[in-house]
Amino acid sequence: MAAPLLSLRGISKRYGEIRANQAVDLDVAPRSIHAILGENGAGKSTLMKLIYGVETPDGGEMLWEGEPLTLASPAAARRRGIGMVFQHFSLFETLTVIENIRLVVPGQTRALIARILELGAEFGLEVDPHAHVHELSVGERQRVEIIRCLMTDPKLLILDEPTSVLPPQSVDRLFETLRRLRDGGVSVLFISHKLEEIRAICDRATILRAGQVTGNVAPREHDAHDLARMMIGRDMPEPPPMKPAEPGETMLELIGLSYTPDDPFGMPLKDMALTLRSGEILGIAGISGNGQAELSELISGEIRLPFETREQVQMMGEPAGHLGPAERRKLGFAFVPEDRLGRGAVPGMSLARNSLLTAHPLGLARRGLIAVKQATEFTRRCIADHDVRTSGPDVEAGGLSGGNLQKFIVGREMMLAPKLFFLAQPTWGVDIGAATAIRQKLVALRNQGVAILVISEEIDELFDICDRIQVLSHGRLSPSLETRQTRPEDIGRYMIGAGAAA
Amino acid sequence: MSAPRIRPMLVKRDRPSLSLKILAPLLALVAATLINLLLYLFMGKDPVAVFHAMILEPFISFPSFSEVLLKTGPLLLIAEGLAIGYRAKVFNIGAEGQFIIGAIFASALPVWYPMATGQWIWPTMLLAGALGGALWAGITAFWRVRLRANEILVSLMLSLVAIQVLNYLLLGPWKDPNGFNFPQSVMFQYDAMVPLIIPGTRVNASLLIALALALAAYVFMQKSFMGYKLEVGGLAPRAAGYAGFSEGRAIWLSLLIGGFAAGLAGAAEVAGPIGQLQRSISTGYGYAAIIVAYLGGLHPIGIIFSSIVMAAIYIGGDNALVSADLPIAAVRVFQGSLLLSYLMAVTFVRYRLAFARPVSEVPA
């Protein structure tokens, strides 16, 4: 192996009680694609923040091309030749591509455009410099972000979970770009928790668990099982067993649901049809931004339909489009939203007070006063039954890790004993252990006869647990597909809006 | 490579510091006092005399202290009401107008029935004042909920309208016919006055009412489900929407409570130390109470202390006006610097000061 481009020796970082990184060693070779593999909360993001100068380490040293490296800011990192593309894009939607790039890259507009086109041709990153960002697909936006990083001629490019937002077809294209970048002399740090991807593209993988390095391997020489064991410390959990479906009564029905949001950048929904019966799980596949947020708010009641069109949403056989969230819960509905902090839970409040949010009808509020004992008891039960790792009901919700908070919210909603259970992106940012636990619970609920609707970007997850899948793309819902008779590629075709032609 | 330099910067704490939360208002008070004493020094006043008149006298002289208690009443009432709304992030800035309308509603009874007698009169006046204040705040709530108008602007501008309503009444229909054309109403009859509780002073039962309502506010905010809903709306509006707590109801309730408390304070003022309706019924209580609410950490118990402090600043300022020759604006300057100091001090509840280590720079 050639002398490393970047070397980390014994890097540590702690936040209060939490040791995010402990004595991490890492060597990134020049001209290589290097994976950082780990569950959520394993310390991947912290490590990248240290390398990109967002945070400074508490101990250890970093070497860049053999020389000591201290970074005060991302700007300093960029000057050294380190670029980063974040999971959540930082582009202004109302500006054009070139305007966005001009904000951070100095130079003449004409020269910049020439450079954008040149980089695009060289690395397969074609994008129209004059297009407005809000017109671009997610894949194109990601290309803009990568181009913006490449404008400063980095030697190392960090990509934080770049595939999590892409449809399968665009993933292949991204990989092609990354290979060309490597061959062009740029090293890539690729953060992911998807094993097959890493095996497909990475030359080297460093595996993190609980802030420590647990493996440093050539991923192609190991199968997914080995990698998973290094990542989660035990064997990969089995997908939950599914009994043959015995669908019962219709619990949720959308009949020609159409909706135009006030927000000019929202996605209008057109003529949606869906039927969900008790004892089955229906998955809504698709990349977010295609109407997922609007659809989930219409089903939860956070957006209400006018009284005249209330029959477009039917719950437990009743027109429900005009009802608010609390009234829908009274019908036997429960909902886990895609944002945990600030929507599914109030970060600055204790878990016990967060239980009140939706579970107050279960005797947690009496005669207008908060029943502290009952709320604490409810929370304690939720923590115990749903394996929420926390010191108790008085802990602030904002202090929990993503996975644990999600287990708490899912648990709280399950304790409402719903007949119709709706989850949006239930395993977003949740570690594998917690995600598996949530999926197993959903299957168990289905077997007990609950109707379950899941919106998810993770196609694998939907294939694991769903009886049927519908694809949401550009505000339209595909026909229902039987999971057993469907391949991921079929879903992918509907995701890019070419489903009907197939 | 440029020379290493140390830069101070604010770093977010893992969790808000509780001790600083309690310390912040005290630090702010000390800082504001020092700033103002310095200011007086520049103006050529004797800082020792000012310090004595302003800071010590309100607490060591009993007549002065009784006046502090008297002023505490309205400040406490208004601030408790405002704090409930502020925690729900409903910013009612128009307590001054609600206070004035409360005073007007309360005055209607003695102005129209100056001969009426009986101990029912003053409680009825207080109730009428509170309802009047709530009604006035209700206009703001209506505009905010129905027309999506900003409640800060609407409530603030309605205060200016309230002053004109007061002027109209005092210059027109409610002017005392035997008042030598002064813009004021008749003096109220004995039964229209809130009973005194400390003999020899002007401190009356409205202070007890204010303290009782502070306790009620404590129960409402910390123990009741309704208070919880308001707090969720303030901390995480989308979580309130997800839970199905109505935003409109929270706005109505916040404003009505704020208006009710401010109206009650206005009524207690005309039915107490003033004894008639006149132009100068408020010396900016409605605005000072905003500072009181924040200085008390928007906590019902904290506000009891901060309202005493603010009342002492009023009285101390009056004292210094006489004995140390301070200008009348001094009190306002003190209030303003106190709020600014507090806002700076609370930054450190969530952030701490850190010094960035020397940086190795590469030539750009």
Helix count of chain A equals: 16
Structural class assignment of chain B: mainly alpha
What's the β-strand tally of chain B? 2
Sheet with the most strands of chain B?
2 strands, antiparallel
The residue fraction in helices of chain B comes out at 55-70%
The CATH topology annotation of the largest domain in chain A reads as: Rossmann fold
Describe this structure as you would to a colleague.
The complex is a heterodimer of chains A (502) and B (364). Chain A has 502 residues and is of the alpha/beta class. Chain A has two domains: 6-232, P-loop containing nucleotide triphosphate hydrolases (Rossmann fold, 3-Layer(aba) Sandwich); 250-332 and 418-501, P-loop containing nucleotide triphosphate hydrolases (Rossmann fold), CATH 3.40.50. Helices cover 33% and strands 24% of the residues of chain A. In chain A, the strands form five sheets. In chain A, strands 13, 16, 19, 20, 21, 22 and 23 form a seven-stranded mixed β-sheet that branches. Chain A has a six-stranded mixed β-sheet with strand order 6-7-8-3-9-10, with helices on both faces. In chain A, strands 2-1-4-5 form a four-stranded antiparallel β-sheet, with helices on one face. In chain A, α11 packs across α12 (372-385), α11 (351-359) packs parallel to α13 (402-414) and α12 crosses α13. The longest helix of chain A has 16 residues, at 168-183. The two termini of chain A are 47 Å apart. The mean pLDDT of chain A is 88. Chain B has a domain at 76-298. In chain B, 69% of the residues lie in helices and 3% in strands. Chain B is built from 13 helices and two strands; from the N terminus they run βαααααααααααααβ. Chain B has helices at 18-42, 47-60, 62-87, 95-112, 121-147, 151-171, 206-223, 225-235, 237-243, 247-274, 285-295, 300-323, 330-350, and strands at 7-12, 351-356. Chain B has a two-stranded antiparallel ribbon with strand order 1-2. The longest helix of chain B has 28 residues, at 247-274. The model of chain B is unreliable at 358-364 (pLDDT under 50). Classes of the chains: A alpha/beta (502), B mainly alpha (364).
